[in-house]
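Explain this record to help learners:
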Amino acid sequence: MEIPFHKHLREIRTRLIYIFAFVFIVFVLLMPFADFVFSISFLPVKNNIPAESPIIFTALTEGFMTHIKMSIWWSLIISMPFIIYQIWLFVAPGLYEKEKRLFKLFMPLTFGLFWAGGAFAWFFFIPFTVGFSSGLIWEGTEFLPRLQNCMSFTLKTVFFSGIFFEMPLIMFLLLKTELISRDFFIKNRKKIYPGIYLLILIMLPGDFFLQFLFFITIILLFEFFLIVYKYKLNNKLTS
């Protein structure tokens, strides 16, 4: 039986309330440990800039606002498994039993991919980007990274890397449930690529360098998945 539209809206509102409440609770719990979280948050940057380059702030309220924004970003990162679960609860009633079993089976992998994406950003992507950028110093110039910029770059990168690492799993589920075929992805590359960049543009406005790096990473993930899926499909047909 088809669910009335107003019930969909009510369900969306309920899930959003749960998500905002959970994120807010995590935010409140993090505030007493702000100094500890603060010191951890800047490790990928501090460990990859010249020792003589201090992290500075130039605005009177920048230190306070950085603590607030940092706690918000960490609240979102920590709450992501709960957010994914709430999305699943919203989507589940519209799925067939076979699709529900498939989604339940891959739910732990969804959490794992998010943390894997965050770890990739923390241990590889951020150190490489910071090390490369801080090495571009000309004679007569000094590298003085700003506090808020460093925090925003680090935690945005961790958060969105985790989200973008979900893409292969989403593609796999769409193909497995036959909602979309592999040929659809191949034939619509010219539309998908600009769509991906537009999504990155919305998520990371005003940071072209980070947008470009994310775009290249996602395209590589996209193409790698299509190659792997084709290889598995060919093996299945020949066996």
